[in-house]
Amino acid sequence: MAVAELSSSYTKTSLHSSQLSFLSNRLSNPSRRIDLQPLPPTRNARVVCSVASIQVQAPVPVHAEDPKMKRECYGVFYVTYDLKAEEQTKTWKKMINIAVSGAAGMISNHLLFKLASGEVFGRDQPIALKLLGSERSFQALEGVAMELEDSLYPLLKEVSIGIDPYDVFQDAEWALLIGAKPRGPGMERADLLEINGKIFAEQGKALNAVASRNVKVIVVGNPCNTNALICLKNAPNIPAKNFHALTRLDENRAKCQLALKAGVFYDKVSNMTIWGNHSTTQVPDFLNGRIDGLPVEEVIKDTKWLEEDFTEKIQKRGGVLIKKWGRSSAASTSVSIVDAIRSLVTPTPEGDWFSSGVFTNGNPYGVAEELVFSMPCRSKGDGDYELVKDVIFDDYLLKRITKAEAELLAEKKCVAHLIGEGIAVCDLPEDTMLPGEM
Ligand SMILES: NC(=O)C1=CN([C@@H]2O[C@H](COP(=O)(O)OP(=O)(O)OC[C@H]3O[C@@H](n4cnc5c(N)ncnc54)[C@H](OP(=O)(O)O)[C@@H]3O)[C@@H](O)[C@H]2O)C=CC1
Ligand SMILES: O=C([O-])CC(=O)C(=O)O
């Protein structure tokens, strides 16, 4: 059907906009753009996109500052829906906007479906997914959006895809920053910091310009601590406290290994802190950890194993997994992102805590300020967190934490030009690895 015919039949028969979307997405010429007018919105209904934004080609990046341009929605998500129309949805919360970068990548391919299912934010929480890709990945991003369409998730009310962070991050209440260049063979850590640092500087600026003023940001793309620091430094109008670097996967890995050694199921392991950097200097803290409510060292009476085997196992778990799989962990990383979000939107169980890479300013442990460092956190479930005060230290733990701190201070010097601190001097003490690189 030609565009004009489709257009006139729409006017005559008042096709629902989702039907139009269906038709338009199946037009043979993929570069064609459909210019139709949407049905007028019903009372209480929300018009998701203007029909003019139905596109079967990669959209031209739209700068959010252009008020004439509306956001893009994909396929069936270009609909007029009414969150109050059905009995079931009357108790639903107000929809939230979740932006995801690297949305066509492996981690996202697991994560997006968890988000859409309701298992992360709750079965009464409708969501809009705003997916950021690039020219390189745009077709794959369309594939992701198509799979989301075909999954018929009731809570998933909008999906939009784009390649301009200033467009995609508009009004985002959560930003899950996953996209980053992986470190390739022969690439120095300094090169990776430079390439990915630029991505996170731009995304920080975009968040600062267009996201919700209280957006919560979880940086997954590596090296995630320093990327998170770059991002927050480029977003001065968003509280620095709102930025996290994902170290929850490391926490989960540590709980699993302690459970295995102790011969208990992993739900018995609690109070597990990962200190420092998501790299091989990270410190899984068995001094403060607990198994079945008891200090780890009272259950596992093998200090050598804890200090050497266990610690190294967690630091290098990602690399061992890559050797088995031929790619880095995607499913367990997505689970850990879910855990990280849920830890912020549900109250932390009494006496327990979780790990997250957060801004060090004001920390009670004496870690250098102006870093993103993994530390123990508790939340009331309101999206915010506080640092746990009642932790203990011994010489071993302090020495390890100091090493992680030195690494992050050195990484910070490499990206000084991206955080407004002058000229970068990149002299990393030793070329440590991401967990996945071993
Ligand atoms: N913190 C943690 O615990 C963990 C972090 N990670 C990290 O998460 C990130 C994503 O992992 P995963 O989803 O498996 O990776 P994939 O390679 O599957 O996807 C990464 C995405 O990053 C985007 N990207 C952005 N810039 C570049 C670039 N210059 N070159 C290539 N790709 C780029 C690509 O999307 P596009 O083209 O759309 O931009 C790509 O789809 C990686 O940095 C990885 O190291 C992984 C596991 C654990
Ligand atoms: O280096 C990677 O991409 C993988 C990684 O971070 C991990 O498995 O912890």
Automatic annotation (TrEMBL):
Catalyzed chemical reaction(s): (S)-malate + NADP(+) = oxaloacetate + NADPH + H(+)
GO CC annotations, alphabetized: chloroplast
Recorded family membership: Belongs to the LDH/MDH superfamily. MDH type 2 family.
Domain (Lactate/malate dehydrogenase C-terminal): residue spans on this chain: 247-417
InterPro entries linked: Lactate/malate_DH_C (IPR022383), Lactate/malate_DH_N (IPR001236), Lactate_DH/Glyco_Ohase_4_C (IPR015955), Malate_DH_AS (IPR001252), Malate_DH_NADP-dep_pln (IPR011273), Malate_DH_type2 (IPR010945), NAD(P)-bd_dom_sf (IPR036291)
Organism: Camellia sinensis var. sinensis (China tea)
Protein keywords: Chloroplast, Disulfide bond, NADP, Oxidoreductase, Plastid, Transit peptide
Domain Lactate/malate dehydrogenase N-terminal, first and last residues per copy: 97-244
Lineage: Eukaryota, Viridiplantae, Streptophyta, Embryophyta, Tracheophyta
GO BP annotations listed: malate metabolic process
Subunit: Homodimer.
Localization of this protein: Plastid, Chloroplast
Signal peptide annotation: none
Protein's UniProt name: Malate dehydrogenase [NADP], chloroplastic
UniProt EC number: 1.1.1.82
GO molecular function, one term: L-malate dehydrogenase (NADP+) activity
